């Protein structure tokens, strides 16, 4: 069944408005964001933690940790994308203006934090680690990002993040314990 002519016209108008808004955002980003201190903080937060991880990780756990890291990365990107598109929060200093989510957060800080906690003191109960992870992210890091003007919640409250991060950590811990990982020589 073909869409109606009216539907196509309305959708085309929405696409045109979206493209216009995106062009405006790109102009503002070029003038007020790129190469600012906040932008450089984002670049550093995206790259430096990965470099440190490469040097300080347990080499024999690389495949397992990357599997978990990519799971967390994909989930973080999806949830962050939904949150920004639904207007629950926004970011002032995008690394790349075409991506609505905050890259340092989604592709570096959250996945590496989970990977570190999985690797650090593996004998500690994962529920305790999930609790600590969730408290730090929801009640320390998110407010810090608001304070330094990287992140602005609109209708989102920090305590909403707690159960989400708690579940992300527990699922990640479960995935990291799977026996399907072999050392590649």
UniProtKB/TrEMBL annotation:
InterPro entries: CBO0543-like (IPR048147). Keywords: Membrane, Transmembrane, Transmembrane helix. The keyword Membrane applies. The chain crosses the membrane at residues 37-56, 65-92, 98-118, 130-150, 156-175. This is Uncharacterized protein. The lineage of its organism: Bacteria, Bacillati, Bacillota, Bacilli, Bacillales.
């Amino acid at each position: 069944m073909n869409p109606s002519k009216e539907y196509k016209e309305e959708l085309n108008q929405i696409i045109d408005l979206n493209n216009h808004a995106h062009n405006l955002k790109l102009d503002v980003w070029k003038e007020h964001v790129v190469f600012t201190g906040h932008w450089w903080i984002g670049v550093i937060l995206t790259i430096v933690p990965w470099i440190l991880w490469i040097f300080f990780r347990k080499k024999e756990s690389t495949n397992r940790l990357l599997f978990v890291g990519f799971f967390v990365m994909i989930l973080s990107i999806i949830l962050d994308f939904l949150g920004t598109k639904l207007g629950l929060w926004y970011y002032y200093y995008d690394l790349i203006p075409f991506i609505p989510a905050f890259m340092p957060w989604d592709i570096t800080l959250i996945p590496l934090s989970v990977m570190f906690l999985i690797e650090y003191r593996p004998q500690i109960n994962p529920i305790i680690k999930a609790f600590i992870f969730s408290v730090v992210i929801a009640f320390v890091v998110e407010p810090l990002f608001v304070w330094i003007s990287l992140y602005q919640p609109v209708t989102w409250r920090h305590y909403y993040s707690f159960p989400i991060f708690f579940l992300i950590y527990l699922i990640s811990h479960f995935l990291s314990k799977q026996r399907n990982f072999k050392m590649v020589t």
